[in-house]
Write a sequence for this structure.
């Protein structure tokens, strides 16, 4: 594989390369993993503001008189309950109850929904939704028409506000508005994947580099940092936000992943519902839990977890927490033991190291 | 950062500083730069043996774990205590204060096959 020719690029690729970012293959995309230092970028988001290129994420638009019905049929949360301008976290499931993807659903108008989906899953998601579309609705693959930038941190609002007349302080968490950013039409959502306040904006790819540069300029007074996927991962882990391919896979269901709150059984039929009913009746056998290391060592993705000398599960995501200055992680455990205060051993390169389950999220920002 | 002229270097980005029948081993500036923020260093205990070309410990950055390979064989005399408390020193002074281990060389000839500073600089330049 030649990363210069075989990997997909976002509209900001030249910006990343010019700023000497370290680039990696992320699900087939040539993406910045860090610009300066993951720790510095992480701390910028927790204390100031950071800017991420997340243009690899996919967008799917669903329009038509029965758009809400289609969204509700293919996803777990209750889309019909969204107000115009509101968004929520949701999931696409297979019939067997496993995850196709985790997604954000935005209600643009009575007849239009805007889905933000994971980069590596976007083609699969689009096919999945289209295959289940027996409704009066059109499903459009829109990823080529959007670049996405995430402005995150306590000074995200102050930074973005300089470039838009939209009243950002009036946009509530998980709401959005369409407006102008740097004189360019943009969808401005108060969402994020960092556990911090902030915005995710969807802009035309042709304007993305200019808007990126204007945001960097606007954030200078707050010490804004360009941030890569490395910091995005440590930030989302502290906030216990799931990552597809790690906490969420085709063979885990939302109850196991501690995401029962995005499953609305009362809304009626949806893909995967029958499997979830059976899972509830039979009770789930494993569940996601948070842990922190009590001995030297870092429990990382894929490491085995033991309880009392017996194999019990595995780490889905693990690493250092820059904010807490501890080594933390998420793991699947037998459901009865997926509660705080259970002593674990994480097998680090075949040597057991002590850990204990703890309440999650690991980090929660102070309410403002 | 320049590469000390009296050190020898491996393709796996370790350095060796030989003094008589002893040697200090560390990782290069190139290696620390590639790893990024280093948060944990796992080193062997004094008295244990390392074998040329075999992993003797690991260095962990925020993002990943990397094995460290012995440039020569020998008995570990000392592991750098500084790194258990301040692993980030490895980002700051990889060729100096943040050396990893000291060994008593069991086969001093092994050092002959390593790169000198000029060859290593060319090697990382081309990598």
């Amino acid at each position: 594989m030649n990363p210069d020719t075989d990997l997909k690029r976002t509209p900001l690729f030249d910006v990343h390369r010019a700023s000497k970012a370290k680039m990696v293959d992320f699900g087939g995309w040539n993406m910045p993993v860090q610009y300066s230092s993951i720790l510095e970028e992480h701390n910028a988001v927790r204390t100031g503001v950071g800017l991420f290129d997340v243009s690899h994420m996919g967008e799917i638009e669903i329009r038509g008189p029965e758009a809400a019905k289609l969204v509700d049929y293919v996803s777990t949360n209750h889309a019909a309950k969204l107000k115009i301008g509101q968004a929520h976290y949701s999931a696409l499931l297979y019939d067997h109850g496993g995850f196709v993807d985790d997604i954000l659903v935005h209600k643009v108008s009575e007849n239009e929904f805007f889905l933000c989906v994971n980069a590596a899953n976007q083609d699969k998601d689009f096919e999945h939704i289209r295959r289940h579309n027996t409704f009066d609705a059109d499903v459009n693959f829109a990823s080529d028409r959007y670049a996405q930038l995430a402005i995150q941190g306590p000074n995200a609002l102050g930074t973005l506000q300089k470039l838009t007349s939209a009243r950002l302080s009036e946009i509530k968490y998980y709401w959005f508005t369409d407006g102008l950013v740097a004189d360019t039409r943009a969808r401005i959502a108060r969402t994020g994947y960092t556990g911090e306040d902030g915005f995710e904006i969807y802009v035309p790819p042709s304007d993305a580099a200019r808007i990126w540069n204007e945001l960097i300029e606007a954030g200078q007074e707050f010490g804004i940092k360009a941030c890569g996927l490395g910091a995005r991962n440590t930030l989302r882990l502290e906030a216990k936000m799931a990552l597809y391919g790690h906490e969420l896979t085709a063979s885990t269901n939302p109850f196991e992943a501690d995401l029962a709150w995005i499953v609305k059984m009362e809304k009626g039929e949806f893909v995967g519902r029958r499997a979830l009913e059976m899972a509830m009746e039979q009770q789930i056998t494993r569940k996601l839990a948070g842990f922190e290391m009590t001995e030297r060592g870092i429990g990382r993705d894929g490491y085995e977890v033991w309880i009392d000398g017996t194999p019990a599960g595995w780490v889905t995501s693990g690493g250092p927490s820059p904010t807490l200055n501890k080594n933390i992680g998420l793991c699947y455990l037998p459901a009865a033991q997926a509660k705080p205060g259970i002593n674990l051993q994480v097998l680090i390169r075949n040597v057991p190291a002590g850990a204990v389950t703890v309440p999650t999220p690991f980090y929660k920002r102070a309410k403002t | 950062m320049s590469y000390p002229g009296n050190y020898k270097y491996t393709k796996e980005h370790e350095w060796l500083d030989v003094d008589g029948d002893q040697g200090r081993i560390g990782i290069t500036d190139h290696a620390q730069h590639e790893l990024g923020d280093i948060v944990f260093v796992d080193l062997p205990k004094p008295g244990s043996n390392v074998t040329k070309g075999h992993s003797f410990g690991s260095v962990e950055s925020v993002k990943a774990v990397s094995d460290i390979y012995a440039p020569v064989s020998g008995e570990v005399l000392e592991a750098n205590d500084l790194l258990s408390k301040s692993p980030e020193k490895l980002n700051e002074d990889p060729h100096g204060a943040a050396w990893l281990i000291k060994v008593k060389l069991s086969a001093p000839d092994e050092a002959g096959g390593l790169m000198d500073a000029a060859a290593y600089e060319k090697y990382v330049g081309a990598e």
In short: The beta strands of chain B are 8-9, 14-19, 22-27, 38-42, 49-50, 55-61, 65-69, 74-79, 101-105. The helical segments of chain B are 29-35, 82-85, 89-92, 117-126. The mean pLDDT of chain B is 95. Chain B touches chain A through eleven residues (CB under 8 Å).
